[in-house]
């Protein structure tokens, strides 16, 4: 302890000198490390790493270029009304409706009902005579063009007998109480019938039509009927299960009116 008390300045000086010597020895390494950091930083700024380019999405740009190549066309034709004023018409009940093709004329006609027209052949009675058995067969042609031809007509027939409508080809079962008659129709068809079950075939249709602007209706119209709309006459040229076709008499222009029995009526 006496040595430290007498020589502590020397010991302290020696420790300081030792630290300075260590710092001097470490200084070259520190300088070298800092130089390397500065060099790396300089290299990173002067020659930065470049990432490879990804595939560019040019969809939007190409769409814009394509659109810019198409000329802009301004249409002022109907249904645009800027330069095409639309007249309106007062109906018979005082309502105002646009006077266009969808509200006035044949396209404003609606079909309220379509009814099938049948050909019905029935076995009405059987007559047993000395000359053989005769079969009274009735025929109804609802689709006939001439009204008087739609009434029921009866014919007396034996096997092999012919008339204007059919030929009786076969009688199945007992002659006086057959289970079935087989007829060959003049149009090439075959009809089977008995007393309990007549032969029925759809050969046409008739339609019931309405025209709301004038509150007109035409029930049970057949092909060939004439309809008067807004002072013009139109013929009914086709009636089927799902459409009706009207034709203008003055130029034969045609309009097709669709019929959907399950659709709710549209307000007008």
Please provide a brief summary of the model.
21% of the residues lie in helices and 38% in strands.
End-to-end Cα distance:
124 Å
Total count of helical runs of at least 4 residues: 2
List the helices and strands in order.
HHEEEEEEEEEEEEEE
> Residue share in helices?
10-25%
Query: If strands are numbered along the chain, what order do they take across the biggest sheet?
Result: 5-4-3-9-10
Average pLDDT figure:
84
Silhouette: elongated
Please tell me the total number of domains.
3
Strand percent estimate: 35-45%
Low-pLDDT sequence parts: none
Give the radius of gyration: 51 Å
**What is the SS-derived class?**
alpha+beta
* Largest beta-sheet characterization: 5 strands, antiparallel
Give me the count of strands: 14
Features:
3 domains, four-stranded antiparallel beta sheet, 268 residues, alpha+beta
Q: How would you describe what is shown here?
A:
The termini are far apart. It contains two helices and 14 strands, in the order H-H-E-E-E-E-E-E-E-E-E-E-E-E-E-E. Strand 7 and strand 8 (190-193) form a beta hairpin. With 268 residues, it is α+β, with helices and mostly antiparallel strands. It has three domains: 1-41; 88-114 and 204-258, no CATH class; 117-203.
């Amino acid at each position: 302890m006496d040595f430290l008390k007498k020589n502590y300045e020397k010991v302290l000086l020696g420790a300081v000198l030792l630290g300075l010597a260590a710092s001097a020895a470490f200084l070259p390494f520190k300088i070298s490390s800092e130089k390397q950091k500065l060099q790396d930083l300089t290299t990173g700024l002067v020659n930065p790493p470049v990432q490879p380019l990804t595939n560019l999405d040019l969809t939007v740009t190409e769409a814009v270029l394509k659109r810019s190549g198409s000329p802009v066309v301004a249409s002022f034709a109907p249904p645009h009304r800027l330069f095409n004023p639309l007249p309106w018409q007062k109906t018979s009940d005082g309502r105002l409706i646009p006077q266009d093709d969808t509200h006035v004329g044949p396209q404003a006609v609606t079909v309220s009902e379509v009814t099938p027209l049948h050909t019905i052949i029935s076995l009405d009675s059987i007559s047993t005579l000395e000359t053989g058995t005769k079969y009274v067969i009735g025929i109804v042609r609802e689709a006939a063009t001439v009204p008087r031809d739609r009434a029921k007509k009866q014919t007396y027939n034996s096997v092999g007998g012919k008339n204007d409508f059919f030929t009786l080809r076969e009688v199945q079962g007992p002659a006086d109480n057959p289970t079935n008659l087989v007829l060959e129709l003049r149009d090439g068809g075959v009809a089977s019938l008995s007393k309990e079950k007549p032969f029925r075939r759809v050969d046409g249709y008739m339609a019931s039509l309405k025209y709301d602007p004038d509150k007109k209706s035409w029930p049970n119209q057949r092909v060939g009927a004439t309809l008067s709309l807004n002072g013009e006459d139109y013929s009914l040229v086709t009636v089927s299960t799902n459409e009706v076709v009207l034709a203008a008499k003055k130029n034969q222009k045609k309009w097709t009116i669709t019929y959907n029995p399950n659709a709710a009526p549209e307000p007008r």
